[in-house]
Amino acid sequence: MATEIKVEIIQRQTVKPSSPTPHHLRNYKLSILDQMAVQTYIPILLFYPNAADATSNNVMATNERCQHLMQSLAKTLTHFYPLAGRIKGGAVIECNDDGAEFVEARVKCSLSEIFEHPDAEMLRRFLPVEPESREAGTGTLLLVQVNLFECGGMAIGFSISHKFGDAATLNTFINCWTATAHDQSNMLMLPKFGAAALFSPLNFSNSEPLPSVEVKKEKLMTRRFVFDASKIAALQSKVTSSVVPKPTRVEAASALIWKCKIEASARSSSNMLGTSLIRPSVFSHTVNMRKMAVPALPENLVGNLVDFSTTNYSHSGENTTVIDLKGLVAKIRGGLEETKERYAAVVVFDSNEAGEKMKWYINLLKNDGIDKFICSSWCRFPFYEADFGWGKPSWVSYVAVALENVTVLTDKRDGNGIEAWVTLSQENMALFESNKELLAYASLNPRVTN
């Protein structure tokens, strides 16, 4: 399907802040956490149905929408002025108003065709840049692509440099843009800057640079699994225990995905321990440091305020039949509780210690004797509230970055179900996607429904 659908770029334009950035704001410091962030773009797609009936007025309405988006983006960039700048020397964004990129594209199909069975590779074509592009660390920090469908529908693709911020930062930016588009200054949640003052950057010019996370597109496969609200509730009920009497949706879904990944790895041809024997694994959940910090940090504080809650499963060499789903939930909950306790005890953040921890973690990722699984939850971010003036999105989709063994969880539109975007090696994915226990709770790439 990815090759059948034609996406034609109509034009590319540079959008600069509507007011020049003041001289005293021209140098925006990155924090140590920004410096350590993987050099990719964070991608998201917001799909909007045709708000009007299919009439000849749609062409004018579409042009007006694009102009409205560009003008409101220029105003938004006066608040998010670093996004119109460029990173210099790995520690500073030079806020020179070079601008963001705004792309218009025409798609030769209807939204309903996309929604039938969304293809991970096809969705990439609605983004203005490949998520893995190294430009994320050297070039344009924000790119937007407005995709116009034959039915009058629209998909807005956002690519924001991970060096500038995380998913919470992306959410704050979209909230700011939609409020600006409505001229709702009373609803405007302006970004807060200053993370570098809390998490001091390090000077790597005279020291060994941080090792980088490997991005590789070859031999990876991404699949979308959808947990409906009723299935999530049943799964939560199944994994309830005295240790975790009230597991969250994310804990329940994460534990099942982890279990099925362990089983797929055990059955893969690369398992040197033998067929169906467990390889040791580490499971890392991203956590929002804004909520973990004591006292809590503002939700609109911009930057990469993300840490990892890490736990392990070390029944190496045993048969996969011993894996206890309730036990995995307890491990995930335990890791999160340990992370909370660690932040409660922090008085002053130690950037050198954070740098050493990151080196340890990346070296762990490179250890072929241990399986590493990462899960990032975007649930509860209100992306489905993003209304630019023609209603809320009918579907919000993550677009997978080529990082092996990474899962990203997003809300279904009802706010109760979960969509899981899972990236694995091709062999492991074939084993994972046929797991009967997984398919008892999750559907493999069903049609997008309201």
TrEMBL record:
InterPro entries: CAT-like_dom_sf. GO terms for molecular function: acyltransferase activity. Keywords: Acyltransferase, Transferase. It holds the Pfam family Transferase. Belongs to the plant acyltransferase family. This is BAHD acyltransferase At5g47980-like. The lineage of its organism: Eukaryota, Viridiplantae, Streptophyta, Embryophyta, Tracheophyta.
